[in-house]
Write a structure and sequence with these properties.
Structural class: mainly alpha
Largest sheet: 2 strands, antiparallel
Number of strands: 2
Strand order of the largest sheet: 1-2
Length: 131
């Protein structure tokens, strides 16, 4: 019985070390192509061209993306809750990456060959869309 426990512990430790090395290797491989965090502090959203009258009234807007930046305290609380409920139920329980969600999505991709559900969090979606 002790031999089985020893083998299981050794196997678990080996898998943990291999996993850690794989994660570190992936990070070191991707690090040179990752954007600098400071670029997030100077976000320039694409907003439409606005044509105004002489007294400041809006006549027309031209552009593909119609983004009007607002501060987070200007967003209604119900809208924030709706986004969290629809997109990332565990938003307050992780640090931007949900390992369980990523593992679930990876398993579905491997087992079916198709992407069936997202494993990303709101944080990851924002980063993907921004960069």
């Amino acid at each position: 019985m002790r031999a089985l426990i020893r083998i299981t512990a050794s196997l678990g430790l080996t898998l943990l070390m291999v996993g850690g090395i794989a994660i570190m290797g992936a990070y070191l491989y991707l690090k040179p192509s990752l954007p600098d965090v400071q670029t997030l502090r100077t976000v320039q959203l694409q907003t439409p061209l606005q044509i105004l009258t002489e007294d400041g009234l809006l006549i027309a807007q031209f552009g593909e993306k119609r983004r009007d930046p607002v501060r987070i305290n200007e967003v209604p609380l119900d809208l924030v809750r709706a986004f969290l409920a629809a997109e990332d139920d565990n938003f307050r329980d992780h640090v931007g990456i949900d390992p369980a969600g990523l593992a679930r999505a990876a398993w579905e991709l491997v087992s079916t060959g198709q992407i069936q559900s997202g494993g990303s969090t709101i944080t990851m979606q924002v980063a993907k869309n921004y960069f």
